[in-house]
Amino acid sequence: MEAATLKDIARELNISVSTVSRALRDSYEINAETKRIVMECAARLHYRPNPIALSLKGSSSKAIAVIVPQIANYYFSQAINGIEDVANRRGYDVLIFQTHETYDREIANLRQALARRVDGVLISLSSETSDLTHLQELQQQGTPIVQFDRVSAEVNTPRVVADNFGGAFAATEHLIKTGRRRIAHLTIQPWLSITQERLAGYRAALEQNGLPYDESLVRFGTFGPNEVGPLVDELLALTPRPDAFFTASDRLALGCLGALRQRRIHIPDEVSLIGFTNLNVADLLSPSMSTVVQPAKEIGQTAAERLLDLIERKQRPALPITTTTIPTTMQLRESTQLPVVAC
């Protein structure tokens, strides 16, 4: 069976080809009822747009690029699910690239995306990215960009993030309310937005509860293998040593849990542990881990909506450049229960 064309849909509905085209692109010029009728007819006739042909004509490729540090990270896999939900519903393909946490790979990913004539870019910065020139130049060329999760104010684009400050504040205050006073914070590179916001939330919770901020209890890591153990050893060597650990990523949370168990530090009797993660197995760990949960899928959906609105310029006047902050939630489990007091 030959694929249906725009002309077939127009003939079926007795409307113009241009009206069909605009309706399928979800144009603001077409009313909702016409869009519904056109979409139903397109589905019935098994119409599929040809993105290559569209690109060759110099119009929209109907594809967007998503650039993330690592697809295997559960947070980013959930964010991508949200992005694909929105993009597919609005008729866009999604090209996924991963930087593996390197600046050079991030630049290479952008070049590959542009070579494929994407209509816009969704990006979460790599842990090595402190120079934003490549994104600033891309924006100046008119390419729609939306940043999500790891973002920078140096690039004047819409940003979609979790409430990193609020989540970190809530996690730290929870530890304080369970009697912890020496709370260590394991985090990642200091120039990343999520690092700065979570560190600020941690610090604010300490200060608002009458505890001093102690730089010796904070450790910055990378994404290298086997690095968490030495950081935990440094913190345990302090006098007095920490009675709780708050980690700022999935990898650090798992690494800290493993390091404490290897050193026979009992959780939660000796120390509490809480992460800032989207681990889907946190309740299966031993002990089950308390976490601040980021709304990864919702962040992906919101970021995709913002990007596609930029691409299609549906709203008049243009959307303001804003940061959309989505609330986190806290899931409390065994790793932060009150210490057992011997009778």
Automatic annotation (TrEMBL):
Species per Swiss-Prot/TrEMBL record: Hymenobacter setariae
Record bears the keyword Hydrolase: no
Gene3D superfamilies listed in its UniProt record: 3.40.50.2300, lambda repressor-like DNA-binding domains
PROSITE patterns the record matches: HTH_LACI_2
An MF annotation (GO) of this entry: transcription cis-regulatory region binding
InterPro entries found in the cross-reference section: HTH_LacI (IPR000843), Lambda_DNA-bd_dom_sf (IPR010982), Peripla_BP/Lac1_sug-bd_dom (IPR001761), Peripla_BP_I (IPR028082)
Pfam name, any one: Peripla_BP_1
Protein name: LacI family transcriptional regulator
CDD domains reported in the protein's UniProt record: HTH_LacI, PBP1_LacI_sugar_binding-like
Key words, A-Z: DNA-binding, Transcription, Transcription regulation
Residues annotated as domain HTH lacI-type: 4-58
Lineage top rank: taxon: Bacteria
